[in-house]
What does this fold into?
Amino acid sequence: MTPERPRRADATDAPVETPETGLGPVSRADVSSALSDPGSAPLYAALDLGTNSCRMLIAQPLGSQFSIIDSFSKSVQLGVGLEASGRLSRSSMARTIQALRICEKKIEKHGVRRMRLVATEACRRARNARDFIRQVRRETGLALEIIAPEEEARLAVISCAPLVNAFTEQLLVVDIGGGSTELVWIDLSGVEPVNRARAIMRLHMGFNAQGEGAVARVVDWISVPLGVATLKDQFIDVDDDAARFALMSWFFEENLAKFSPYNATNPRQGFQIIGTSGTVTTVAASFLNLKRYDRTKVDGLQMTSDQIDLVIREYLSLGPEGRRTDPRIGRDRHALIMSGAAILQALMRIWPTDRLSVADRGLREGLLYAQMSVDGVLQDGPYT
It folds into this structure.
């Protein structure tokens, strides 16, 4: 599988569109109410249908950020069997549609006017994806749109803007998904420290269409068609747990060879990696020994490479059965945690930092930020 890489023409032709499920841009009155009276601000929905999970947020603009009103998350395993057949199976589509019905009820209950409902790698790859999208529309009324890897990467990046350190000059954002992993390398050295988070936010207009003034310069990005589910499927025939983990990690690294920063000499000082995914947050929760997940303790946590290695070694010592019963990993994550950990270990092995910033945020938050930015309902300010 060859990683997908940007074409410069494509990177600038990525406007944020209003999907069929929305009722068009909000009015000036709505914008005024959002800025003056947050309680009367319009509601927005963002749904991310990935290879493994279906997740949705409903939120309301609040100052320079937003407040979560409702949420939904379920493991639907849409991509089960896709690697072998090239198609979405009937059972996986049925599970997903059941989850989407719940999402539709939440959207209707809250009277959401503005929404983006997107599907990613599994639907990009499946031969019957268009049929599935039409079936979803018939049975739930929801209009899913399949987004390109470039937009998926861009949305993951802007969701992480609040976590960018003021001293960061070189930033690597990594989004480990179920079917693919997106990496974006950003040069912030030309932006004043106080403006770096805002510069990241401006990427919602496109990697090369950021307006005037000092900008966050995207050095390179890549979408590797290996996520926690697809990488696991590649080595499902390897019985030995430790050998399978090592093979997955080195195989993922091989797929980064064409990513230009892979072979570059980058300084340790001023370099930051932000990791956003269920893998990263699970490793963080395990490090903190959280028997019950707590987002406030995980989001923004900084872990050293030694701490990450310690957690991964513990996962290996537990073995498949031990991981299945470990409350810190959870029932939905235990089968996929080692493929995700293999990706994470490869990344920490390659780049010149001994710290990782943990982001419990991603595509959904990026979708919300992008919609609200386009509508002008966010107050300009530091994204902290």
